[in-house]
Amino acid sequence: MHSTIRSLLVISLSLGIAAVEARGEESGAATPPQLANLRKEITALIGPARCMNLVQCRVVAIGIDSCGGPAEFLVYSWLSTDKGTLETKIAEYNLLHEDLQKKPRAAANCAALSEPTAACVNGRCVLPAVR
């Protein structure tokens, strides 16, 4: 009798743990490798960001810093980048990045990043170097 109860208890606990693990996977908890993969996809979508003049270059915010502003900016060319696909990937990246921001950590200095101005240099859209 005791071995039957013990077996049922082990089975019940195993099923309960499996259900909790399945819920954790469904929630899509953000992990740094997922962010890295999305970042690679975003970089691939942007490609070489070819331009003939400055008008073809665009700046887009990506990531969310601990204060809610953009973590950084990227530059792309509207000539060679599908804006809709890029915006969708960045939104996906931002959602995952925001999930990581919810994890407890030390307080940060909330200095807002100012949006840089893009430039077309040697046929490529670029952002000025940060000094």
Structure description:
By secondary structure, the protein is α+β, with helices and mostly antiparallel strands. It folds into two domains: 29 residues; 96 residues, no CATH class. Helices cover 45% and strands 17% of the residues. The chain is built from three helices and four strands. The strands form two sheets. The protein has a two-stranded antiparallel ribbon with strand order 1-2. It has a two-stranded antiparallel ribbon with strand order 3-4. Helix 2 packs antiparallel against helix 3. It is globular, with a radius of gyration of 22 Å. The N and C termini lie far apart (75 Å).
Q: What's the number of structural domains?
A: 2
Low-confidence stretches: 1-30
- Biggest β-sheet description: 2 strands, antiparallel
Q: Supply the number of helical segments.
A: 3
The portion of residues forming beta strands comes to 15-25%
Quickly give the structural class: alpha+beta
Question: How confident is the prediction overall: mean pLDDT?
Answer: 77
CA-based gyration radius:
22 Å
Q: State the end-to-end CA separation.
A: 75 Å
General shape: globular
Question: What's the arrangement of secondary structure elements?
Answer:
Layout: H1 2-26, H2 32-46, E1 57-64, E2 70-77, H3 83-101, E3 119-121, E4 124-126
Antiparallel strand pairs: 1-2, 3-4
Helix pairs in contact: 2-3
